[in-house]
Structure formats: C-alpha cells, structure tokens
Amino acid sequence: MKRLTAIILACLVSLPAVAQTQCVPNGAGGMNCYNPNGVTQSMPNGAGGFNTYGPNGMTQTMPNGAGGFNTYGPSGMTQAMPNGGGGLNMYGPNGVTQVQPNGARGFNAYGPNGMQQIQPNGAGGYNIYGR
After folding, report:
1. pTM value?
2. For residue 104, with 0-12 CB atoms within 10 Å meaning exposed, 13-18 middle and 19 or more buried, which class applies?
3. Which 8-state DSSP code applies to residue 4?
4. Of 33, 49, 52, 72, which is the most exposed, with the fewest CB atoms less than 10 Å away?
5. Measured between alpha carbons, how far is 113 from 78 in angstroms, rounded to an integer?
6. Rounded Cα–Cα distance for residues 61 and 117 (Å)
7. How far is Cα 88 from Cα 63, in angstroms, rounded to an integer?
8. Could you tell me which residues are beta bridge partners of residue 57?
9. Which residue in 21, 25, 55 sits closest to 42, CA to CA?
10. Going by C-beta distance under 8 Å and a sequence separation of 6 or more, which residues neighbour residue 65?
C-alpha cells in the first residue's frame, strides 16, 4: 500500500487541477493517470522511488527516511509525512494538503485548492475526483 500511495501522491503533485483523473497500472510497476489535460506516467526509478512523466515535465518521488516521501519537480519540492491519523500531510510550494482515509477504501485530500476524493476504480488503480 505504501508503494501505491507514493504513486498516487506523485500523480496528485504532478497533475493539473481537473474534475476527474483515472489512474490504472501500466504493466511496468507504475501507474498511468489520464485526465482532460493529458496523461501522466509513473515508473519505478531503481532507487526506491518513482519518476513521473507528464504534460508539466518530470517529477521524482523518493522515500525521505522519515516514513514519507519527497517529490521533486518543476514547481519545487513537496514533502509527504505520516500524520498519525492513518494518512499523510503534504507540504509543498502551494501549501499544506492533508490526506486521510475516507472509510470507503479510499482517501480524501484536503488542500489549498479544495477537496479531492481518491477511490479504487476496479481496474487495479484509482479514480481521483474534485478540485
């Protein structure tokens, strides 16, 4: 679950705000995320993290040694840390986003741009709604 969470967080950081995003496994150990603004592809990078390629450039997500992840990309660095409530707090250039389990096998992300809901989609991936 931690690996999948890292991929989903990389997609959240990398994708522009849209109404819906669908993420599905890509057969290479990562995820492809589709939304009206384009496709983002996350792939393992061989260093314990993921590289994410999309319309806004490339981001790299790596474990940070404190139980979370750091994501480095064109808009700066975002740090995700466990928050003690079963979720993560993400600190980045746009502010703080809190990700919490929602009781429906998914997560709710609350941040500066509003709320996003992340739900399993039945295809081995997730759908992301909101913003």
Report:
1. 0.79
2. exposed
3. H
4. 72
5. 15
6. 21
7. 13
8. 54
9. 25
10. none
